[in-house]
Amino acid sequence: MSERKPYPSDLSDGQWSLIEPVITAWKNRHRSVSGHQGAYAMREIVNAILYQSRTGCQWAYLPHDLPPKSATYYYFAAWRDDGTDHVIHELLRCQVREKARRLEDPTLVVLDTQSVHAAAGVPASTTGRDPAKRVPGRKRGLAVDVLGLVIAVIVLAASTHDNVASIALLDQVSENTAGTVVKALVDQGFKNQVTAHGTLLGIDVETVERNPQDKGFVPQPKRWRVEQTYGILILHRRLVRDYEHSPASSTSRVYWAMTQVMARRLTHANTPTWREPQTVTA
């Protein structure tokens, strides 16, 4: 890493060591014809992506001591398009589960959706209005395990019904976990189509009923994990709104945010907050 004052979002040596093999292998497969290795270290490229994820800044506002937009976006888009971001995410997810003395893939997931406003520059063709939540923008769907780790993610127009999002999530869950998931918990907003589709995949979809006597927000057993994950993701300001032109970029942002969260868990690092300024050890 270049000699500069580190940002709180920077990867520590231990965190970089977790993902460096994947990045190095990718770099070796994409060598320049001229043999040029590039002007920027791969670790700094990842630091720039994580900085933007955490702060929510525009591409042109990346700090001058980080790689510029031209280099950072090139790798962000390349890793998004060939699935490298997902490979890194899955590698760390399996390690976090193993550290918690669990199998690599879960048997139970929790599904939920979240509608977020879209920024002004987001194409109207990929957005819509959620009639229930009255939110114009995009709908972010997650399937998480009991540790709050993301198993599947889908980004659609906010006008898309929760059933469509959930069916797509179940398909991803089945693909990403090699069929280990046998139960999925959903809330009362999901309809019979989701249950029927789950049956086809060998997944028992159970609706967690809300106690009608409860007032305000009351965490539901196990289902609260997905709410917690949404709360963690919102700490990454690039996800507070949907700023991405492509839904695939929005999905990639979720992977990078969770990659940073899991890297910190694996290295026992506290997530810095505005209450307690943290220093980063290079």
The profile of the biggest β sheet is: 6 strands, mixed
Question: Could you name the CATH homologous superfamily of the domain at 103-241?
Answer: Ribonuclease H-like superfamily/Ribonuclease H
Helix proportion range: 40-55%
CATH class division of the domain at 103-241: Alpha Beta
- Write down how many β-strands occur, each being a DSSP E stretch of 2 or more residues: 6
Low-confidence stretches: none
State the main characteristics.
six-stranded mixed sheet; 14% strand; 8 helices; 6 strands; Nucleotidyltransferase, domain 5; alpha/beta
In short:
This protein is α/β, with parallel strands linked by helices and 282 residues long. The chain is 41% helix and 14% strand.
Structure description:
This protein is an alpha/beta fold and 282 residues long. The protein has a domain at 103-241: Nucleotidyltransferase, domain 5 (2-Layer Sandwich). The protein is 41% helix and 14% strand. The chain is built from eight helices and six strands. The chain has helices spanning 13-29, 42-55, 69-82, 84-99, 162-176, 192-201, 224-234, 247-266, and strands at 108-117, 128-130, 135-144, 150-157, 183-186, 204-207. Strands 1, 2, 3, 4, 5 and 6 form a six-stranded mixed sheet that branches. Helix 6 (192-201) links the parallel strand 5 (183-186) and strand 6. Helix 4 runs parallel beside helix 8 (247-266). The protein is globular and about 60 Å long. The termini are close together. The mean pLDDT is 90.
